[in-house]
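Quick start: what a row looks like.
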Amino acid sequence: MTADCERVCAVVVTFNRKDMLRMNLDGLRSQVRSVEQILVVNNACTDGTAAMIRDEFPDVTLLNLNENIGGAGGFNAGMLWAYEHGYDWVWCMDDDAIPAVGCLQELLDPAPALGDRPLILCPKIVHHDTGDLQLFHHKQITADLVDRPLAQELMQHAVVRIDANGFVGPLVNRAAIEIYGLPIREYFYQADDLEYTYRLGAHGGCYLVTGAVIFHNDKTGAVSERKLYYWRRNYTHFVRLNSHRRHFSPVQRWWVFAREALVSLYYSLALIKNYAQGYRGGFLGPVRGYVDAFFMPLDHPSSSLPTSAERPGAT
């Protein structure tokens, strides 16, 4: 079966950003190569998102969650839904992503040449307002598990092998989900995309398709203690997980964990420094996140496909 004959389900996770979501859904509806299904995962929105979808987008399927389980939980639930409904590809994105009209077609075009194996195909991410390339979402991971943005010069190629990618439009095939499972729900948000796409890419293939374009309508806000807590917790867990998988030596493990401890301390000190600019939140979140990462299990059952069709917290 060619990629053009396969069925695609777009999974969009949203939380209280219905105006952005409207732009996202308009972009998905406008694709040259149509999407067979659009699934919106409603992370317990309180801003009228569900009513807006029912009134303006009656063709969109809504998966209502009973509580906000974060982007990680939302993608876990949405990708499971798409897998259980038999779709061949799952197109993942947050509500602030707006695919160009030819994005899906461009993503699918190189798929047959890449072979019948677990695949993630990622569009080039461009900032919606400035037009700047967001290369930091296209990731290269060093041997000691440092996250680096893709080198600019590699963008001249039509298809580029990368190590990981943000949840801004990656297209995941069914084989990848069947073999390597789902995002870790317990991450809540931050680094869930890094862990998942790196897990799949390390065993199958994660590729950037530079002719496919998706616009990222992200708005830069103040860095919060909460956000840094989850970032440092989940990134440190990512390092723990992959240093274990790669069988790091005791010296290698000591080095990577010492590095992450120093990075976490740096972020806590940066929050203290922000008090001069009017910041009044806490500052221990990054350090607490680092410590809490060592109490998280390496084996998260939520990342495996369940034996039943249950989706926790969904209606």
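That is the whole record. Residues 7-220 form a domain with the Spore Coat Polysaccharide Biosynthesis Protein SpsA; Chain A fold (CATH 3.90.550.10). Confidence is low (pLDDT under 50) at residues 309-315.
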